[in-house]
Amino acid sequence: MDHPTLMLLVTLCSSGLCAELHSGSEEFRLVGGASRCTGRLERKFLEGWNAVLEDNENLRWNLERVDDVCKSLDCGSVVSMRRNDTSQDEFSVSLMTFFFVDITCSDSIRLVNHLCSGRLEVMLNGSWSSVNEDDFDQQDAEVVCRELGCGPPSGLQGALYGETDAPEWSKEFLCEGHESALLKCRSSVQKYSGKAAGLTCSDSGNIRLVDGDHRCGGKLKMKNMGEWRSVDGYNFNMKFAESVCKLMDCGSPITARRKRLTSREAVWLLGARCDGSNLMECRK
Asked: What is the per-residue pLDDT across 32-88, written as a single tens digit (0 to 9) for each?
């Protein structure tokens, strides 16, 4: 029996994870990379997004211009830029060759130890710097975890990742908790004598979205009894989708659709009486 396995597709910006550059009347973003600061360059046109294409007779994107993109996206400095041949007939016009523009920026923050846990470092003036733990609070941590694509913060414990002194002059961030990137928060430079901040972000636990362009879009998978499976979409509705997005700290759902499996893949079934308010109690 084929199952209409749910495909939960969440627009990138609904999660606060999109990296966008507003340049005059134009808006840019990077998509499809391992982080918000890497990926294919896209430009907003009307109500949609289109990949930026260059042709072999008009190469307008260079490292200097790409570096401006990275800085404007709060993504540090450019690490690399490459042009990838589209190799598609639909882009072939006469003898011209068209290229996608793929960009890798240095990012603006990192956790030294693991992707979602470790000592916090921020890219400032071209080098990585620690942050003093005395003025790093829960709101700051929420922004960091969201920017890194991790779950909500579960602990602020710098000592777990080694006793390291923060710089004498350190940046204090005054986040409100809703910002999409740490460098979008208000900040000031203060003189300190203390330890470097560290934190642990939680993961999404027993649910995840796979095969999408980012962590907040894709095919829904759930873990039960130690096994990951797709989810049967028969009883799935937007209330369930809201529960998924909330659990993954991904904002609100934009769309959800069902896609019929072509193989006899094992799936988890959702009980017919589940109302969607607590997705993790609806597995069968």
From this structure: 776 678 788 888 888 788 888 877 656 678 878 888 888 778 777 777 787 777 654
Torsion sign (Cα): 271, 249, 38, 10 = positive
- 210 belongs to a structural domain: no
DSSP 36: T
Same domain, yes or no: 22 and 98: yes
Question: How far from 266 is each of 3, 221, 258, CA to CA, in Å?
Answer: 9, 11, 16
Show the domain range for 172. 109-201
Kindly report, residue by residue over 13-45, the tens digit of the pLDDT: 344 334 444 445 578 888 877 667 878 888 888
Total domains in the chain come to 3
DSSP, collapsed to helix, strand or coil, labels residue 47 as: coil
Domain boundary among 171, 201, 231: 201
pTM over 0.70: no
